[in-house]
Design goal:
371 residues; three-stranded antiparallel β-sheet; 17 helices; 3 strands; globular; disordered N terminus
Length: 371
């Protein structure tokens, strides 16, 4: 008789194949268009190779999380949260400054962005704390505790300053509170408080962040300067038409009107839309919808309440990145610098996304067997 396989291997055999294939397709497509976005520059032409390596690390991270199991991660959530907060403090003190923001730490020659992992640590601790009992989170105490958990990384990331990454924690926390049963009047009060604090937030913004808001309202106030990226992104998306100009044939990208340093990262969707048109952009959005559907299905089928909240948090995080990135590239939101999951170039975010998907896959692997 063959011995039973270890639990970790059994869990790996129970992952959601649709989510796995979708994530692989998005990653492969991202590498293809990163190549297209960077091939005109010697410095950027190697990015697709680096992204391929990061994809391997991200896949390993996903497998490790599934093998570990989400319950062990939830048990370790306080330690992971404190570690992430400590690393964020280290980033403020010793981090590498790029484009005016101190968001990266140098680990033996490799630059990583700790804030991407701090978001996942916050989601784990929120899921653990809000899921302690089966009772709805109906009291101000739960609201205050959740706000404190999200507020620490929010404040530390804001100090870097990285407003876009910090702001993602807001919809994540709201969605998890709602899923935990928080009363709507409590959530409404929280939203109202946020609106009342907007003037204070405006005073705290750096000059370039305020300019991004002004450019969003009127991109032609400085069309050759701060408004350039926004204008060229919209031109690239619109010029793709129905079928696009063809892979490697996007003129806005190829001629450098879409700035080459940001084309493979924050504005990769502009490259995709120009080269594949409305059809390709719609296909990309459909893949994300399929991925997010898998996350919501993991929430509905979660074996326990903390697992459900974890799936809601991770799914909201992914949705927020997709929505904000697409909206800013077509002019519906100010430019915030949020990357597109699995598609934009960036090692830290790709690895963090792989870990996040591993959490969803772990929930799927631990689903109850049908009766």
């Amino acid at each position: 008789m063959r011995p039973d396989r270890p639990t970790a291997f059994r869990m790996l055999g129970r992952v959601d194949p649709t989510m796995l294939v979708t994530a692989a397709a998005l990653t492969a497509g991202g590498i293809a268009f990163i190549y297209s976005a960077g091939r005109q520059s010697a410095a950027l032409s190697v990015l697709w190779q680096k992204q391929l390596g990061w994809a391997g690390v991200a896949a390993g991270g996903m497998v490790a999380v599934v093998a570990t199991g989400y319950r062990r991660l939830l048990a370790a959530a306080p330690a992971l949260y404190l570690l992430s907060a400590a690393v964020l403090v280290m980033t403020l003190a010793f981090g590498v400054t790029i484009n005016g923001a101190r968001c990266w730490l140098n680990f033996f020659g490799v630059q990583l962005q700790p804030s991407e992992f701090a978001k996942l640590a916050a989601i784990l601790l929120l899921a653990r704390e809000l899921g302690r009992t089966d009772k709805p989170a109906e009291h101000w105490g739960e609201l205050f505790r959740a706000a404190l958990i999200a507020g620490v990384p929010f404040g530390l990331i804001l100090l870097q300053p990285d407003l876009g990454t910090a702001m993602v924690l807001l919809p994540v926390t709201m969605a998890m509170l709602f899923a935990a049963g928080m009363r709507l009047r409590h959530l409404a009060a929280l939203v109202l408080l946020g609106l009342l604090l907007l003037p204070v937030a405006w005073l705290l913004l750096d000059g370039y962040q305020k300019e991004r808001v002004r450019v969003f309202l009127d991109p032609w106030r400085d069309p050759l300067g701060s408004g350039w990226n926004k204008i060229q992104s919209e031109l690239a998306v619109g010029s793709g038409g129905l079928w696009g100009k063809g892979w490697l044939a996007g003129t806005q990208n190829m001629l450098g009107y879409l700035p080459r340093p940001v084309a493979p990262t924050d504005f990769i969707f502009s490259v995709i839309a120009e080269e594949t048109g409305f059809v390709g952009a719609t296909a990309l959005i459909a893949l994300y919808a399929l991925l997010l559907f898998g996350g919501l299905r993991a929430a509905l089928r979660a074996p326990d309440r903390p697992g459900m909240l974890l799936a809601v948090g991770v799914s909201t995080l992914l949705f927020s990145h997709v929505f904000v990135n697409l909206a800013m590239t077509i002019g519906l939101l100010p430019i915030t610098g949020l990357p597109l999951p699995l598609v934009s170039y960036g090692g830290s975010f790709l690895i963090a996304t792989g870990v996040a998907l591993g959490m969803l896959q772990s929930l799927h692997a631990h689903r109850p067997d049908p009766a």
